[in-house]
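Hi R.,

Here are the chain sequences for the assembly we discussed:
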Amino acid sequence: MIVLVTGGSGCGKSTWAEKLIASLPEENRIYIATMQVYDEESVRRVARHRAQRADKGFRTIECEKDLASADVPEGSIVLLEDLVNLMANEMFDGGDTGRIVPALHGLAEKCRHLVMVTNDVFSDGVAYAESTQGYLRQLADINRQAADLADCVVEVVYSIPVAVKGEVPCV
Amino acid sequence: MKLYIGGAYQGQEELARAENPGGEYYPDFHETIRHAVLLQGQEPREFARRFCEEHPRAIVIANEVGAGVVPMEAADRAFREAVGRALCIIAQQAEQVTRCVCGIGVRIK
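And here is the predicted structure of the full complex:
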């Protein structure tokens, strides 16, 4: 099963994605963490996420860029969090955004289950400078390709999962 | 307790009032959360839990504020995050959650 989870800031998408993983067999669970830790706020965020998944049996792989380089064994159950950070790191930190989608396909083939988390950052109606618009365009494109790859797409709205593609998996 | 949400001006308040005549309304609840968390320094989940305990029949009406680019200002980030965390608790407690899009209510719980 390949699932894409989206939603706004603080909407509970990580919590729901972790619940989904917890409903799957308890073996070979891998958490791919993409966020760069650079200030106190990100340190707190990482700490909160770590505490949240502490008892769920994940092995964490740090992967800020080049997703294909993450050493994920065949048959793993993977939670990839998240596409927004991965995209920002590839784009603004000397990476290559073009390798994200092929890497997602590679993961999808290798994993028993893959849950990808992304973020809805598209609905504030603000006209940003071109570099930010370019980022939004590319992120939207990656989201669409990830959705295409997924069996189901779920939007989490203040903790409530809403089906966007397919059915909401039971958690 | 019922929760009505939606983007700015999507008709969530009109719908809430139409569907719950004479109810105990809490409109613009995202601003109530801003006040409680950013001004008074309350923890968003704690604030929401206490609100649910004290107002079990509330009709809570709020804007969805988290679906944009992460703001540059820390206070703006904290606001969006706080609204998310608090409304997750309220959505869990509510017997009904309705999302309003262009004036049309979609029952998501």
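The mean pLDDT of chain A is 93. Chain A touches chain B through 23 residues (CB under 8 Å).

Let me know if anything looks off.

Best,
T.
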